[in-house]
Amino acid sequence: MTEAFVRLEGRATCLIVDCRSEAPTILYWGRRLPLEVDPALFSLQGVRQEAPCSPAATPPLALTPLIGSGFPGRPGLSAHRDGQGWATWTAITAINRLDPATVEIESEDAAHGIGLIHRLHLAGDVLRMRTTLINQGHAPLRVEACDAPALPVPEAVTDWTLFEGRWSGELQTRRVPRAMGAVARENRRGRTSHDAFPAILGEVGPCGEQAGEVFGMQLAWSGNHRLWAETLSDGRAYVQLGELFLPGECELAPGARYTSPDLVCAWSDAGRSGLARAFHAHVRARPQHERLRAKPRPVHYNTWEAVYFDHDPAALMALAGKAAAVGIERFVLDDGWFLGRRDDTAGLGDWIVDPTIYPHGLGPLVDHVRGLDMEFGLWVEPEMVNPDSDLFRAHPEWVLGTPPAPQLRFRNQLVLDFGQAAVREHLFARIDALLREHAISYLKWDMNRDISHPGGADGRAGAHAHVLGLYEVLARLRAAHPAVEIESCSAGGGRTDFGILDFTDRVWTSDTNDALDRLTIQRGLSTFVPAELMGAHVGPADCHITGRRVSMATRVATALFGHFGVEADLNAMDDAERAELAAGIALHKRHRALIHSGDLYRLDRPESEIAFGIVSEDKQEAMFSYTQIIEPRGYFAPPLRLDGLDARARYRVTLVWPGSGYPASPLFAALAEGAIFSGAALMAAGLQPPRCKPQAGFLLHLVRVD
Predict the structure, then answer these.
(1) Domains along the chain with CATH numbers
(2) How much is the pTM?
């Protein structure tokens, strides 16, 4: 006997699954309902009559919609045995409560030898769901698709918001009206990608940053994927995300199983910022996040834009001295340190310190950096190989490809096949040796190209196996070197999903350090990722990607609200610039405990501005950022109504950045000294921003005074 209804409770949400019929279906997910609500009566509230020219009984929108049930939308499972047994139809066989927050629902198609297990876990206000497919038959099962569980959204949802972009322009949002039919996205780049991030929001309009109901979903997977958000002709709407298989990538032997990536879902009735806070709380509650709370997140210095491939130990030691002088706490040696690496045409794969550049190895540089009381970090790109490398000459069969089709030229590099055990063993051994030989505290793990020809040496498609192999190597490195932090970088923000975050401690948000572009990019990623995991650096005055010149004050203000770093040539700065940078680093250090633990409140502002705040959980302290991107339409920006404060409290509001040069304004003259306002007034009426020039702004620090 199985339960008729399964209910899971979150802090502000709940999930009810109807298990009375053959297929488990989500009856409700959203605002928490009183426990006395009877699910059977709740179900009755939504019962429809038979529609003209329609089935007498509506085919269920099950956790896995199935062809055999007559479901008219996209099935969540597509599998067969040489074209037979493709019309899967399952019935629930068991419901297992693993703990108060977790349930597994087992179903079976005995006629076709297929088993399904749906695992649902609701903690805080985030729901994680996955599907496991089991081949219970006696012949291989060819799987074309097995998505994470489908998530229905209420008919009140009016809009979908998608995340898209490009290299150096990641995580831009696009809102489209929900209409009959499907919004579909497919990604075949072999990594999460810059242009088709595996996430979608369903919004009940009008929905803004501070108010409105919104549902958010992200697939925790770092490879090929597909997204499907459909509205059926009967008005039902649902979202499905899952891995996208290439031909033959998933074939299950008798007794074998496949488990989909998790679909990570959150709900909020406090707008998109409320949704972000739910995702952030979930990320921070992970056991592995404890390592990030053990000490303050160290301020980075990355050498790339200072030296590129021109490595000289003496010059790097001098650069490290200047980095320490401005307050840097971690010195990261980027590309160019390994065998034969003078440009991007050679050396990838040969992870041995180049003796012609470093005749005494990295030891002297590492010791010098640590002697300056900084940690030492290192850039690697283990998934890639240059044709001009010892590794490729020795093992050309280790490269992914689809002969006789020619390899697509892409950054002078090819992709190693992490689906091969020999490749994984070799790369693990090389990186492990580096970590054992040197006091390295941090690895920047990069991946600078798509997997354009994902075929293994056996001729079979290998994109799926590559991602699993990557996860395996990262897990082994973390187990062998638990004190080492690993950053996920993929030509910037090409791999920033929840799947890679299970194995890493930081993501590189974007290769652009243009502060104005970064504000939008960081805003998109902040929907899912909290500030302490989001790499954000002060770049050079002239961004080499956009050519735009941005003031040091604005560059600091943008980088301050992430895992702060510097990626510019300190030698090219004059004394005044270095002093301003040092002041910005000191400001970040004073407030990073708040920034890296507080709640995010993004503010609804005109398109000419970006503003947001970080508020401590107890409402005792806050920081707010305001940046004027372009000239406003009118003479003055609208008042800046702060959010997230305690309306009953009073706060001392102090202008803390920039240190000088802000526009003349009686209000801001008072804020420079610190002025006291009520929380209610700050939220209801706000503060009038001064007339800022484009690319300028300010930071406010709030402390409760009663």
Answers:
(1) 5-285 (2.70.98.60), 295-508 (3.20.20.70), 601-704 (2.60.40.1180)
(2) 0.97
